[in-house]
Amino acid sequence: MKYYPNFEEKVRIVRQALGHPLTLSEKILYSHLFDWDAGERWNGATGDWQGCGSVVRPLHRLADYGDFRPDRVALQDATGQMALLQFMNAGKEKVCTPASVHCDHLICASDGADNDLFAAREANMEVYDFLSSASSRYGIDFWQPGAGIIHQIVLENYAFPGGMMVGTDSHTPNAGGLSMLAIGVGGADAVDVLTGMPWELLMPRIIGVELTGSLSGWASPKDVILKLAGMLTVKGGTNSILEYFGPGVGTISCTGRATICNMGAEVGATSSIFPFDGNSAKYLSATGRQDVAETASAYADDLRADPEVVRAPSRYFDEVLHINLSQMEPYVNGPFTPDAACPVSDMKRRIQENGFPDRIEVSLVGSCTNSSYGDLSRAASVAETAMKAGLKPKASLVINPGSEMIRATAERDGILDTFRRAGATIMANACGPCIGQWRRKVTDNAAKNSIVTTFNRNFAKRADGNPNTNAFLVSPEMAIALAFAGSLSFNPLADSFDGFRFPEPQGNDFPEGGFIGHGSGRIFPKPGSPEPLISPESERLQKLKPFEKWDGKDFISLPLLIKVKGKCTTDHISMAGPWLKYRGHLEHISENLLMGATDAFTGKSGPVAPLARKLRSSVVVAEDNYGEGSSREHAAMEPRFLGVKAIIAKSFARIHETNLKKQGVLALTFSCPSDYEKVRQGDKFDILCSGLTAGTPVKVVLHHEDGTSEEIETKHSYNSVQIGWFKAGSALNSLKENE
């Protein structure tokens, strides 16, 4: 493999050019600068690039943008539809970067794997055919429905140490468990990479997370990130990479590290990453990549932070956090936000103080965060010990394996049979309830209740559409223990029930007989395949029309569409669940625009699209971290499609802000956050943006219905390239203009 000798040389050059030891994040970022492959050659004698000066210049964190060339792109079926529709408009014959499409989001969990897969294929045949034909035509690997969840499949097949990847899903950083810098992006960003264009990223902060000690007993890798979510909150990792280091790293399995990296998205992190070591090599070998394991091992020093960084982390990281794994206990996070962290020993008090329903109705194990062999193995050991004592779960059990490889291996080894004997329903190898694809069978769809899940998110209504469902995030072993106890306040470390006390969970990270079913469900592209067809009468798919260019003038007298109060995630802006079927049809899915957002004046939520169509041009005002959550491009395309010219918020989530920029929506933040309070019902906005330049504030005049006006100042983070997107009407328009 030539990759690692080249990587080693680039790291050497970067270290020399920057003049200091490097974190692992810096090694991967700088080695993937776009200009490395622009044809220039390094001149060792002069210490420069021949012909154009040095490609390696310091990129100041949170100040400079860099142009990068990722190694891979991963697309899932919900967001991938819009990404491929945009790619088709770019006029390329084939993708310029290796890519894969994964059918995991459109399968609704209801009656079990076989029935649900049959129903999904029937309901989504048109979409699957489009994704399959587009993949075959443009040179993309296609993973069929039931093959597995995108991030588990990527970890098993594509992730490699030192690589860089983007994916149209916010939990793409899962691959960081295998030392790959993987970043969740919107579809327009993915199209940049697929077309061979530079991919732009604001140089992130780097937060070092030092792990000491080792996990034991009931503590699991999931608990590490649940604790960290409480430490950082849902905003604390924004525009940052979480880089793990320290002696505790070696005690965590590769899939356990992936769990931790996966949920870094819940603190807003750009990505998360672990260093390469023997555990990484062991996983690569177990999943059929012995050659990668051997070659990476030979270059292991370049696939971790430099020794000087580890010895003096505060000199090289922007922030350093410390977690002693030996002191960890299980966590129960929630409800309604993943950063509401609580150690299990304190849960009884929290329940009493907040009135959470103590009875657990459903326990769900799976999702891209926790569906590895090790996860299922430990969870099954908990169930087995309880059943041997003659006990049955007091809550319903739902299991979603992560991939066909995991399912087939767990079936062979009796793990799934253990769950079936406990009364569990084995769902398809898909996201299912984690993203709202769950047909939950209840007598009252609005009743207040508690569920526990091994998922990564627990926003209101996310799993089952019920705003009164209190969803709590736990590890797989805790999910099973709580299901048998039936009580949210149960602490397996200290409590017993029905005369029974759980022993510590046991399990194996790797099956003794090796994995089976590896690669099942993959279809390789076929050169010369025909262009994918989209029927004009389709209810699921719609060819895209380019958005109109900006006329270069100030926005004058724009009416307020909605002033959003409180948390507004991409789930609030563009709901999932039943709306997933319209992910390839912009006109249809735009009907759900901001349907879940709370109106600051009425305190209610409801349809917003009818008013947006009536107004034709409008403004949205919002509070902090607007657009947190999934990397849902539709949450940016829908307001653009319905005439929203600008969104003014106290702050934006990273991916969503970029998505808005890519689609030509003006994303502004209040210079003074309290100016949010000045916006009144019925206001009209003059946004003086005709002279939009990087780093310059934008003045906004509020015209109130009582005839008075007041001026406020807003900020933006657009650079010159992004301003070009805005002027062209979208990033895709700009790309075509500059070809």
Q: How does this structure look, described?
A:
The chain is α/β, with parallel strands linked by helices and 739 residues long. The protein has 25 helices and 27 strands. The strands form six sheets. Strands 20-22-23-24-27-26-25 form a seven-stranded mixed beta barrel. A six-stranded mixed β-sheet has the order 8-7-4-5-6-19, with helices on both faces. β22 (618-622), α22 (634-641) and β23 form a beta-alpha-beta unit. α3 (77-89) packs across α7 and α10 runs antiparallel to α11. The radius of gyration is 25 Å and the shape is globular. The two termini are 33 Å apart.
Summarize the helices and strands and which ones pair or pack.
Elements: H1 3-18, H2 24-31, E1 42-43, E2 48-49, E3 65-68, E4 72-76, H3 77-89, E5 99-102, H4 113-123, H5 125-138, E6 141-143, H6 150-157, E7 164-167, E8 181-184, H7 187-194, E9 199-202, E10 205-212, H8 221-232, E11 240-245, H9 254-262, E12 271-273, H10 278-286, H11 290-298, H12 307-311, H13 313-316, E13 319-324, H14 347-354, E14 360-365, H15 373-388, E15 396-399, H16 404-412, H17 415-421, E16 425-426, E17 449-453, E18 469-473, H18 476-485, E19 522-523, E20 555-565, H19 570-573, H20 586-589, E21 598-599, H21 609-615, E22 618-622, H22 634-641, E23 644-649, H23 654-662, E24 666-670, E25 684-688, E26 698-703, E27 709-715, H24 720-728, H25 731-738
Parallel strand pairs: 4-5, 4-7, 5-6, 7-8, 10-11, 10-13, 11-12, 14-15, 14-17, 15-16, 17-18, 20-22, 22-23, 23-24
Antiparallel strand pairs: 1-2, 3-9, 6-19, 20-21, 20-25, 24-27, 25-26, 26-27
